[in-house]
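Fill in residues.
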């Protein structure tokens, strides 16, 4: 996943939005670089959509500003937003019209789009076959892909997608993830994608920002957020040896062991020499089938930052 340098595709500087005394977003700053997929991650109600609406000029910030390729969205709205394709809070269509006719109508709002471009984005999003069927007959995944096709119509340099996998089954979620990767790889388009599906974002994002309660808690590469070093170690021994292995590790190395199930033990790596741990176990007669360092997941890092788990997966 390569990221090119230069002027940021998106730059938010101290964005805040207050509704009376309620701070929906507070002091959000981030940069999305050309050619990268940037994950904007947090539970429902964290402030993701409000921030995106400010980035797009749909909501006026209480404080702060947003730049698209160096152009201030508030002061140079048309010039800045010309580079952007987006959908926010789910795409809306005329259900009684076909996917193609919906795109054609949307294209007229910007002065018209060639039919060849409509065909191109339909093929891109896997909707070439059902393009002439009524949107009312589309699955949720097809509607989400049609929303991305709509956002791609004018060949944007920046794509902003608000929860594009919302309501999708695992297969539909994978299709959207694959589509985002293809768009970035083949066109160089920068993508900012908001989501609460942390496992999916871990597979595709170059960098992420974690937001909760309207504030960014941490941002950077996945290694920055998750941690480069493996933080836990997984030990597998025969089921009948699990309790004795637990006791051995506690007595010999002072390890605080957690048993996931019989024969599967986990513990913090810290400064342990895993070769020495393995040697000690084997010399003591344990049949070690694996002793593997495991990096924590993005979800585990998120929970450590926020303490929230109910709204993410």
């Amino acid at each position: 996943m390569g990221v090119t340098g230069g002027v940021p595709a998106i730059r938010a500087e101290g964005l805040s939005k207050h509704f009376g005394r309620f701070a929906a977003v507070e002091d959000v700053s981030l940069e999305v670089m050309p050619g990268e997929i940037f994950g904007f991650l947090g539970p429902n109600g964290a402030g993701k959509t409000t921030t995106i609406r400010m980035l797009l000029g749909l909501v006026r910030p209480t404080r702060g500003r947003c730049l698209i390729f160096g152009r201030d969205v508030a002061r140079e709205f048309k010039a800045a937003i010309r580079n952007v394709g987006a959908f926010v809070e789910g795409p809306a269509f005329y259900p009684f019209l076909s996917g193609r006719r919906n795109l054609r109508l949307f294209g007229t709002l910007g002065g018209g789009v060639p039919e060849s471009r409509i065909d191109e984005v339909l093929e891109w999003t896997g909707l070439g076959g059902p393009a002439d069927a009524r949107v009312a007959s589309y699955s949720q995944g097809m509607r989400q892909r049609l929303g991305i096709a709509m956002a791609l119509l004018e060949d944007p340099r920046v794509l902003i997608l608000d929860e594009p996998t919302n309501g999708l089954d695992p297969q539909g979620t994978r299709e959207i993830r694959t589509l985002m990767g293809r768009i970035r790889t083949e066109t160089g388009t920068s993508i900012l994608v908001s989501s609460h599906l942390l496992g999916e974002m871990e597979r595709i994002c170059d960098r992420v920002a974690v937001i909760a309660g309207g504030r960014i808690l941490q941002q950077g590469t996945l290694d920055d957020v998750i941690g480069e070093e493996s933080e836990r170690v997984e030990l597998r021994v025969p089921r009948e040896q699990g309790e004795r292995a637990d006791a051995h590790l506690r007595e010999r190395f002072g390890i605080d062991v957690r048993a996931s199930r019989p024969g599967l033990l986990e513990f913090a790596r810290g400064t342990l020499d895993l070769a020495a741990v393995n040697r000690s176990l084997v010399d003591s007669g344990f049949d070690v089938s694996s002793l593997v360092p495991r990096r924590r997941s993005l979800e585990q890092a998120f929970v450590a930052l926020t303490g929230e788990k109910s709204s993410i997966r």
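The radius of gyration is 24 Å.
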